[in-house]
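Quick log. Single chain, no ligands specified.
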Amino acid sequence: MRKFLFALAALFTAFGLGAKEWRVTDFGAKADGITVNTRIIQKAIDFVSGKGGGTLVFTPGSFVTGTVFLKSGVTLYLESGATILGSTNAFDYVMSEVAKWTALIIAENQEDVGIVGKGTVNCRGFVTANSLVQYANRGVVEINMAGDRPAEPHRPSNLLFRDCTNVTVKGIHLQDPASWNQVYDRCRNVLIEDVTADCKSYWNNDGLDIVDSEDVVVRNCSFDAADDAFCLKSHSKDHICQNILIENCTARSSASALKFGTRSDGGFRHVRVVDFTVYDTYRSAMTFATVDGGVLEDIVVDGVKSYHTGNVIYLREGRRYTEGNTPVMRDITIRNVYAEVPAEKPDKGYNYEGPVEHMPRNTSPCGIVGVPGFRISGVLLQNIEIVYPGGGSENFAWRGTSPEELAAIPEMETAYPEFSQFRELPAWGLYIRHADDITLDNVKFRALKADYRPALVADDVNGLTLKGVTYTEPSPWKEQEVFNNVERLVKE
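-> predicted structure:
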């Protein structure tokens, strides 16, 4: 991992030095916020690429455009006050023939490409998506509709990179996509740095999607998203997300802040997340899911501050689209975490809030939840403090801790993996099931009000080590730990 980071830093230091510059206005583009410049911008990109590469500069103003294709050797430089502004006419967007996805800026099978500067890319996705809905309702387009909205691939993202090498996206602001915000699909040597995003104006507005890519650095970024903020996905059993560094980033989400999955065909390997801040997030600060037959291993999360977030840690294996493959989740370290979980809905008042009907009955604990035959192994939780609201009431919802009651908790092996999928769990702090070699070292669970449930429940665990684990709760009237079918239990 370290060698990869040094090599990547050297590559991005060298990339772009001495490149020739052209202004997009010299090709006739107008920054009036009205003129549709798609053909002009595309001709300018083709010209710069044909000259061996260089920088295409966007000066202050709003350059309206539909889909443009970025070409090898070309960097788009957005000066402060410059905006690449998406057309609100859905017919101005093109679906990538390779990725089968729509975006404002697309690069596929290119190398040495970038979008940098202090300007903005704004797809105006809310208006664009609704114009597409109107076309579909009038029968002038035939597209897949997911309920009351077009399926994600038909709605334009801001950025889509597919099968590209040496990608730099730095300094810019991303605004209002119609679908996922920025997608890096099967790319190598990617730097995403000092990028901000406000993407909470329509359904499925992920902040960042890294799909089956490797050698990726994401640094000093802040994403406010309607859907998952920092999301790693694996769409192919022949590919994997690996060698990923996410450092000094901030997330706000009406789904999860940091998510591995849900699509997890090939899987995820060698990922480091360092100094990660989460706030006002509806689901989990961290969700790790492998439910489609992929591997998830060698993951380290070090340094998380999470405030006003519905859940802190959720690790889940399952059998959704496994098709005979065996998912693997192992070798995971999560350390140096401080988190506060509220009693109320944490994203209340944001555009496109998380669904009220998915809220748990009583506040959910952290979860390490495998399924029979697909067990989670080798997890270390270290130097962690989580503050819960407490107040869980058996009169509101009941989940008991006898062997019979624990066995009655549904496995939900093929369900979509979210911490709230069980609605009620029998612990207020941490629930562990179908797992091996789990270690808690200096972990503090604190409840502000008394809860009818114990703090920790472990069920069907082989190898559980508790070192310096404490539970603080006003007037607890029961034992704080319940162990059922636990072998090799060590308490220090």
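Residues 9-18 have pLDDT under 50 and may be disordered.
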